[in-house]
């Protein structure tokens, strides 16, 4: 039976797409829906804490670590990135319009009880370790089967 629940698979690591996932999540949570986010593949870059380092990585994992953005503040736009100016422009416009920053959205999501599941397979493939991820109150590690189960119980599912 479907519950008043929203499940979102967040796969893109683009700023605007992670932003969209968070805006939709916060809106649903404000309407008293249970929200479950499943971060996989490129979106894991948004969950990396720029202040944390992981030790004991192999060469390929170190290379992924260098190539992937390190945190929400380093994400690129999917279109019109303009050498990094695009995200700065969007963030400036968001601030002028009183829109929460991505960092603030994650904080509010934690306060709303929005659950974030991190795909363990994606972590393994991309060489990302738990100790380099953000601190978030409702964080869990699982796989696609867990997301499929959550999505099957949800009244709405999205793929971003």
From TrEMBL:
Highest taxon of source: Bacteria
InterPro entries xref list: DsrE2-like, DsrEFH-like
Protein name, per record: NADH dehydrogenase FAD-containing subunit
Phylogenetic placement of the source organism: Bacteria, Pseudomonadati, Bacteroidota, Bacteroidia, Marinilabiliales
């Amino acid at each position: 039976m479907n519950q008043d629940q929203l499940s979102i698979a967040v796969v893109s690591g683009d700023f605007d797409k992670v932003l969209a996932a968070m805006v939709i999540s916060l809106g649903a949570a404000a309407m008293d829906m249970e929200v479950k986010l499943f971060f996989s593949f490129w979106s894991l870059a948004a969950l990396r804490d720029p202040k944390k380092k992981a030790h004991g990585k192999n060469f390929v994992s170190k290379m992924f670590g260098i190539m992937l953005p390190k945190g929400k503040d380093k994400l690129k736009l999917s279109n019109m990135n303009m050498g990094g100016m695009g995200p700065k422009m969007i963030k400036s416009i968001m601030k002028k319009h009183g829109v929460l920053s991505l960092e603030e959205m994650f904080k509010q999501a934690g306060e709303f009880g929005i659950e974030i599941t991190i795909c363990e397979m994606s972590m393994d493939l991309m060489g990302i370790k738990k100790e380099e991820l953000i601190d978030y109150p409702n964080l869990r590690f699982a796989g696609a089967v867990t997301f499929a189960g959550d999505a099957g119980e949800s009244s709405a599912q999205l793929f971003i």
